[in-house]
Amino acid sequence: MTFSSAPTRxxxxxxxxxxxxxxxxxxxxxxxxxxGLPDLPYKKSGLIHGLRWLNEPQHNAxxxxxxxxxxxxxxxxxxxxxxxxxxxxxxxxxxxxxxxxMPPGHVVTRINEMRVYDQAGxxxxxxxxxxxxxxxxxxxxxxxxSVPRVxxxxxxxxxxxxxxxxxxxxxxxxxxxxxxxxxPMFPGKEFPTPYFxxxxxxxxxxxxxxxxxxxxxxxxxNWNRMLLARISRNSFxxxxxxxxxxxxxxxxxxxxxxxxxxxxxxPIFEHKGYTSMTGVQxxxxxxxxxxxxxxxxxxxGGGDRPASSAVPLPWPERPKPDQADQTMLCLYEAPKPWGPxxxxxxxxxxxxxxxxxxxxxxxxxxxxxxxxxxxxxxYRGPGGGYNFTVQELELIL
Length: 397
Hints:
Layout: E1 2-3, H1 23-26, E2 50-53, E3 58-71, E4 77-86, E5 92-100, E6 107-112, E7 125-134, E8 137-146, E9 159-168, E10 195-198, E11 210-216, E12 223-232, E13 245-250, E14 256-259, E15 269-275, E16 280-283, E17 288-298, E18 326-334, E19 342-347, E20 354-358, E21 370-377, E22 387-396
Parallel strand pairs: 1-19, 10-16
Antiparallel strand pairs: 2-22, 3-4, 3-22, 4-5, 5-6, 7-8, 8-9, 10-11, 11-12, 12-13, 12-15, 13-14, 16-17, 17-18, 18-19, 20-21, 21-22
């Protein structure tokens, strides 16, 4: 297994193994105390032994973050960027982009600013989560975000509430129904950050006739656990909450049980204080689902994370960086979307505070033994990275 070191989040409209990263990546961030990994909750993988980074991060001119990608039936990737101004000056809470070609020559173009998704109530604003292309339709998870507060998982944990899934039959140009906080698909923190389990082009290669969706228990970063939901692929277009069921545990033979009431849901993944918003990608080369988890492992002060929150930080107050934030990247594999998960890569310093990893199947080589990660990050500090960023890697088998 490899161990590598290496404005608010951000409401524009309110103004608001063993491989080391190369020297040029290190030079992007100011000198700071590097905080090590926390205790990790899962055992080492016996199948994937780590990864090799094959090049430096490649930065695109489109500003923003999250950058969830999916491979549609027209051959293009589509992506949702949050807090994004694209290549212009005016920013929006979320926008839809088309991504053409292969890296490093890919072209990223904004096709919908999604202006209808402005404020979601006092002190809340809309954000995009997962995006999926399924049977010629794009589906987007959307939620109401707010800053950390009493009841957050930690003092740095942004909140997500009142999530819904909306759809587009014209490659992101129009969407329906309009999501609202008054009548969400998943009220409160029932299933607040919906991200899709991704397969190949237009959901080809799916293991069965269900669409699977994951969510953590509360918000963008540094929460505690992940849940799994599923819905029949045939009925998904109806976007009817009554058609959903949630993973409720697995028996001795790893046979899953399902329940329509989230009160009976069991987590598929747990890491208290370090479970952030992310998705899952199936990788044919290893016949495994890959979960890219990330979290802040240390953070300097900032007005977007109020000290008034009663819940402590997930890391010790000391040591901590005195100038820059720090995120970790941990990659897990499992034979099924519900696990069991095993760790194959742990990186305590991931770029200049990168986050929200994704692995688009269109950019797989040899079934995904080589692939490109899509990431965003460094929204608060210097050094680059707050844009559509990709980097190539190879799995060590």
